[in-house]
Amino acid sequence: MSIKLIEKNKEKISEIEKERKRLIKFLVSDCKLVEGSLRKSLIRCGRQGCHCEKEPIHPITRISRWVNGKLKNKIVRVADREWVKSLSDNYKKNKKALSDLVKLNEKEREIIKTVIKLKTLKYE
Ligand SMILES: [Zn+2]
């Protein structure tokens, strides 16, 4: 049994626990989210005589998300663009934090398995 190796792994776990605490604190915080990705594009307004008759020039922002296997799009009102962008960014950050947490759990599991191995004696 290597005390030194076990201590080293305990340090690693305590680092992981700090990171996990940070991720969970963020994940259960009260920040609001909007599901979907934002995409900017140019459209024609349809008004006669507008420059956009030649090519689309009017900028719009769409938010799209998957609903029952279908991609649903919705145009974001100009007045809503800023807050929808910020809430959509929050959504991405939450998804990322959750996936980081899953990876962290897996990493910790491997370290604990190593510690268990190190602690294990053979009764012979
Ligand atoms: Zn136009």
TrEMBL record:
It holds the Pfam family DUF6788. Residues 14-85 form the DUF6788 domain. It comes from Candidatus Scalindua rubra. This is DUF6788 domain-containing protein.
